[in-house]
Amino acid sequence: MRRIGVFVCWCGSNIAGTVDVEKVREAVKDMPGVVHSVDYQYMCSEVGQNYLKDAIKEKNLDRIVVASCSPRMHEATFRKAAESAGLNPYLVEIANIREHCSWVHKDKEVGTEKAISLTKAAIAKATLNEELVSGTTQVEKRALVIGGGIAGIQTALDIADAGYLVDIVEQTPSIGGKMAQIDKTFPTLDCSACILTPKMVDAAAHPNITLYTYSEIESVNGFVGNFNVAIKKKPRYVDMDKCTGCGVCIEKCPSKKGKSEFEEGLATRTAIYTPFAQSVPKVPVIDKEQCLKFKTGKCGICSAVCGTKAVKFDQEEEIVNQTYGAIVLATGFDLIKLDNFGEFHNEHPDVITGLEFERLTNAAGPTKGKFVKPSNGERPKKVVFVQCVGSRDKSERGKSYCSKICCMYTAKHAMLIKDKYPDVYVFYIDVRTPGKNFDEFHRRAVEEYGVHYIKGMVGKVMPEGEKLMVQAVDSLSGTPLEIDADMVVLASATQAKPDAVALKRKLNISSDLNNFFTEAHPKLKPVETASAGIYLAGACQGPKDIPETVAQASAAAAKAIILLSKKELTNNACVSNVNKNICSGCKACSKMCPYDAISIKMMDIYEHGKVVRKEVAEVNEALCQGCGGCTVSCRPGAIDLKGFTNKQIMAEVDAICL
Q1: What is residue 571's predicted lDDT score, i.e. its pLDDT?
Q2: What whole-number distance in Å separates Cα of residue 247 and Cα of residue 270?
Q3: Quick check: 263 and 365 in contact, CB under 8 A?
Q4: Mean pLDDT over residues 491-507, rounded?
Q5: Does residue 610 register a pLDDT over 80?
Q6: CA 57, CA 45: separation in Å to the nearest integer?
Q7: How far is CA 521 from CA 209, 534, 535, 626, in A?
């Protein structure tokens, strides 16, 4: 007979407010095998864990059931407590009576009855639990950082400084990301380039860091500690080893009409170019669609003037295969396109986005820092800022969420131009300034600089001659407003990168409805994903400002360093197990396995008194994540999941039905 201990948690009032925990304890104390049944306010606390440990030793318990919150939150906690008391951790069972009962029921009687049923089911399963032993795998001492913005750079530097090799994969020709386009940073108005460019140089010069710019992730296989990644290096048509970055090829290139992506289309660039003056690496790339050599077969001036013969028109795509112990996603964000917001006449050259504003006020920008109207180069006298364009949008045109950074960067923009352009207006829904010194920064814009903040939505922007008529309503007074502006700056919403969906599929991670990558737990695992060994840094998880991005990048680096510092990893013990005697080799399990953990092999099986050679399924326990999908797809029922066998599941069902 089993000796089962049942521990019912109050979780303060989270559970006890809707579930009668004492009634639950009383209802299960006489079940077969139960020899100890108690309730306590906080089972996850040190005192609660000590109750569990002492009971295991004093009552000689061989199975544990904890009726508490989700196993996703504290299963590991109670398993460690049981293990420290000498019990196999996989003999601990969790009944989720918080999320499944107290959080979904208002009627205490109904919630209590359901809690009793779930606890009985857990006891029935615990009776059949067996000791499991986890396997181990080696850890590759190398990290991959996907994305070369400030989040990726900070993550890579932290990991590299800890003594581990790091590869940064960046889609564009240079690292730097969005921060490289920004002029000043809030709330201190520091020079963005002064903060970022030294870090870019440090990353390029660090002996433990390898840069793969103008590259993409082709495929990802493997598992935590051993991710096999294929990196596609797109052809730059310039030999990076030979190029000295002298820039002569750029000066002599006759094709000068390409739109500069870095300058947000406000300036042109040549067919062979570096994105910006401080690019790292300082090696140009040829735009094949613009280059006359590729289009007509003529030209080739860049090759002729190159003293080191670095230009290679025959350069081809290259695939680099590498193994990594940990992966950090730092792919950043984009701004939404404003094509669907025709009321703002965003096609007008003097209606610009916040990022275009950054380039117009940047000393290294297309106007050398002079804030002028793109339409005619004249200095504007009246500027209107419109916040929440596409953010907090209830229609399908924009995003339903707050983009978090817009209030602050609009205040920054207004402050930067207020001294020279006295008529500055900001239309807002609400001002949200939750960061350290953020509200003080906003108040400074209003009180010290005298920026006109108007609570209200802009209904329409209409061009009238050289002016832009901004029609709006002051929602505090109900007064209709019409402002004849020279320029309108739209604070457009942030959004996930367009390739986020494709990347999450390659990595087997999840994302939310807006395609931002999802953390494993918002409080306990804010930088980890549901796939072990893959971490998140920066705005790929959701809208973030630079201080928060850098902090999270260092947090993700710390998690990766913890992983890389281990000689070996303990695998999940709850993995699939194949009964090879009844396996038909139909391959249904291997086809549906999302982790490629099941392969089909020819094996000699002793069957009906003789040895038969046949195809059977085999599980790689290092790859298996215990999702159980294969057990459902197996037609002859040859696969069971350790810790969640068919027999255990049916025992739970029977306990609930009794």
Answers
A1: 83
A2: 11
A3: yes
A4: 94
A5: no
A6: 19
A7: 30, 13, 12, 19
Return the structure tokens found at 197.
């460019």
Q: Residue 26 and residue 114: Cα distance in Å, rounded?
A: 14
DSSP H/E element including 551: helix 546-564
Strands 215-223 and 285-286: unpaired
Strands (E), 200-262: 209-212, 215-223, 226-233, 258-259
Helix pair angle (192-205, 150-161), 10° resolution: 40
pLDDT score recorded for residue 39: 94
pTM of the model: 0.85
Average pLDDT over residues 276-291: 95
- Rounded to an integer, the average pLDDT of 5-18 is 94
Peptide bond into 187 cis (omega under 30): yes
Q: Are 327 and 334 in contact (CB under 8 A)?
A: no
Strand partners, 146: 169, 329
Q: Which DSSP state fits 311?
A: B
Token pair belonging to 621: 């326990």
* Residues in contact with 27: Cβ distance below 8 Å, sequence separation at least 6, in sequence order: 116, 119, 120
Q: Which residues of 620-648 are buried (b: 16+ CB within 10 A; e: fewer)?
A: bbbbbbbbbbbbebbeeebbbbbbbbeeb
Distances (CA, A) of 65 to 131, 142, 214, 544, 657: 15, 40, 53, 41, 19
d(CA 126, CA 568): 30
Whether cis (ω within 30° of 0) applies to the bond prior to 526 is no
How buried is residue 447: exposed, middle or buried, by Cβ count under 10 Å (0-12/13-18/19+)?
exposed
3-class state of residue 269 by DSSP: strand
DSSP letter (8 states) at residue 446: I
Residue closest to 169 by CA, chosen among 324, 335, 336? 324
